[in-house]
Design goal:
This protein has 413 residues and is mainly α. It has helices at residues 16-32, 41-47, 52-55, 57-70, 73-80, 82-102, 106-120, 123-133, 140-168, 173-176, 178-192, 205-228, 234-256, 270-300, 305-329, 335-353, 362-387, 396-412.
Length: 413
C-alpha cells in the first residue's frame, strides 16, 4: 500500500462540522434526484413532445447509470484518493444537472440523465464511508443518523420540492436546484476535506463488465417489465438471458482470478450480508411507495401538484424526528430492538394503506405517511451502523458501494 497523504485519526480530524455539512449536501443532492423528477414528468412530457412510454426513460436512464457506476467507487477512491473522486463527481453531477435543465429534446434529456447518474453514483457510498472514518467508533451511531437524514429525507422530500418548483416556476428548476447545493459542497470539500490513503490494486476489467451487464439487465428488467408485458415480451426475456449468462461468467471468473472486482472477504461478514438483505427491502418500501403515491393522488384523486407535495411532506418530518431520536439513544439500546420497532411502525402504516381508495381523506394520507417515515428512520440508522460494525476498515468503501447498490436495486423493484 502506498499513501499520498496519511489519513488522520477520527479524533484528530479538523473542521469535522464543515466536512459533514459538505458531505450531507452532496448526499441530499444525489438522492433527491431519484424522486424529485417524478411529479414533473407530465410537464416534461409535453415540453419534450414525448409519449408516456418514452418519458419513463428520464427515470430509467438515471437509475441504470447510477447502479452500474456504484460498484467502481471503492476502486476509484483507492486509486486516485477519496477527495479527488468526491470533487470530480460533485462537479460532474452539478454540471450535468444544469444540462438536464437546459435540455430541449428527449434524446438530450436521457443523455444528460445518464451523465448525472454516472457522476452521482459515487456520492452516497463515499459520503457514508467518510462519515464513518472522520468519527470515532463510539459516535458511529450519531454519524449514521446524520448521514441517514440526507439519504432518507432526499427521496421523501423530493415530491414536495419537485411539486412546488414545478408549480411555482417550471419543471427545469427541479434540476437547477442542484446548482447552489453542488457549488457549496464542492468548495467545502476542496478546502476542508483531508485526503485518504491510496491503494494500488489491479482493475478487474472483465469482472466489471460482467457486473455491468448483470446490474444493467436486472435494472432494465425491473423497470421495463410492466411496460413491456413481463415474460411475454422478447425484450424482458433478453434481459433475463443476459443477466443469467453474465452472472455465471462472473462467478467462474472470480473463482479463478487473483484480484476479483469485488473482494470476496466482504461477503463473509455476516452483519454486512444481513444488512444488504434488509436494505434491499427497505429500498422497495421507501422508493416504491414514493413513486406510486404522487401519480395516485394526481391522476386518481385529482390533487394539484403542489397539494401532493404538501401532503407528502409529513413523511419527511416523521423520518427527521425518528433519526434525531435514534442518534441520541443508539448507544443505549440494542440495534435489533430499534430495527424491530421501526419495522412494526412501517408495517402498521403499510397495512393502513391497503385500504386506500379514491375517497381516502387527506388526514389519512398524512398520518400514514408520517408513521411510515418515522418507522423507516428507526430502521435505517441502526442498520447502517450494524452493516460496518465488524467489517475491516480497508473494506469500508467497497462495503458502502455494495450497500448503496442493494438499496438502489430495491428501489427499482
Amino acid at each position: 500500500m502506498s499513501s499520498a497523504t496519511q489519513e488522520a485519526k477520527p479524533g484528530e480530524i479538523a473542521f469535522r462540522g464543515l466536512i459533514t455539512l459538505s458531505i450531507m449536501l452532496a448526499t441530499i443532492m444525489q438522492v433527491l434526484d431519484t424522486t424529485i423528477a417524478n411529479v414533473a414528468l407530465p410537464h416534461m412530457q409535453g415540453s419534450l413532445t414525448a409519449t408516456q412510454d418514452q418519458i419513463t426513460w428520464v427515470l430509467t436512464s438515471y437509475i441504470v447509470a447510477s447502479a452500474i457506476m456504484t460498484l467502481p467507487t471503492a476502486w476509484l477512491a483507492g486509486r486516485f484518493g477519496r477527495k479527488r473522486i468526491f470533487l470530480v463527481t460533485v462537479g460532474g453531477f452539478t454540471l450535468s444537472s444544469v444540462l438536464c435543465g437546459m435540455a430541449t429534446s428527449l434524446e438530450q434529456m436521457v443523455l444528460f440523465r445518464i451523465l448525472q447518474g454516472c457522476f452521482g453514483a459515487a456520492l452516497v457510498p463515499l459520503a457514508q464511508a467518510t462519515m464513518l472514518d472522520i468519527n470515532p467508533r463510539e459516535n458511529h451511531g450519531k454519524a449514521m443518523a446524520m448521514w441517514g437524514m440526507g439519504v432518507m429525507i432526499g427521496p421523501i422530500l423530493g415530491p414536495t420540492l419537485g411539486g412546488w418548483l414545478t408549480e411555482s416556476y417550471n419543471w427545469r428548476w427541479v434540476f437547477y436546484i442542484n446548482l447552489p447545493l453542488g457549488i457549496i459542497a464542492f468548495l467545502g470539500m476542496l478546502f476542508f476535506m483531508p485526503d485518504s490513503d491510496r491503494v494500488k490494486r489491479p482493475f478487474d476489467t472483465f469482472g466489471f463488465l460482467m457486473l455491468t451487464v448483470i446490474i444493467g439487465s436486472a435494472q432494465l428488467l425491473m423497470d421495463r417489465g410492466e411496460h413491456a408485458g413481463w415474460f411475454g415480451s422478447r425484450e424482458i426475456l433478453l434481459y433475463c438471458a443476459l443477466a443469467g449468462s453474465a452472472l455465471w461468467m462472473y462467478i467462474v471468473h472470480s473463482m479463478r482470478t487473483e484480484h476479483p472486482f469485488l473482494t470476496p472477504a466482504i461477503f463473509k461478514d455476516r452483519n454486512l450480508m444481513t444488512s444488504l438483505v434488509f436494505i434491499f427491502f427497505i429500498g422497495i418500501i421507501l422508493l416504491a411507495t414514493m413513486a406510486l403515491l404522487p401519480p395516485y393522488m394526481q391522476n386518481l384523486m385529482g390533487y394539484p401538484v403542489l397539494d401532493v407535495g404538501i401532503i407528502m411532506a409529513p413523511r419527511g418530518i416523521g423520518t427527521m424526528i425518528a433519526m434525531m431520536i435514534v442518534g441520541k439513544i443508539s448507544n443505549r439500546f440494542d440495534a435489533r430492538v430499534l430495527i424491530l420497532f421501526g419495522l412494526a411502525c412501517t408495517a402498521s402504516s403499510l397495512f393502513a394503506m391497503t385500504g386506500f381508495s379514491t375517497y381516502v381523506p387527506p388526514h389519512t394520507l398524512v398520518w400514514t405517511g408520517m408513521l411510515q417515515g418515522f418507522g423507516l428512520g428507526f430502521i435505517f440508522v441502526p442498520l447502517s451502523t450494524v452493516a460496518y460494525a465488524t467489517l475491516p476498515t480497508q473494506y469500508r468503501a467497497e462495503g458502502a458501494s455494495v450497500f448503496s447498490l442493494s438499496r438502489n436495486m430495491g428501489s427499482s423493484v
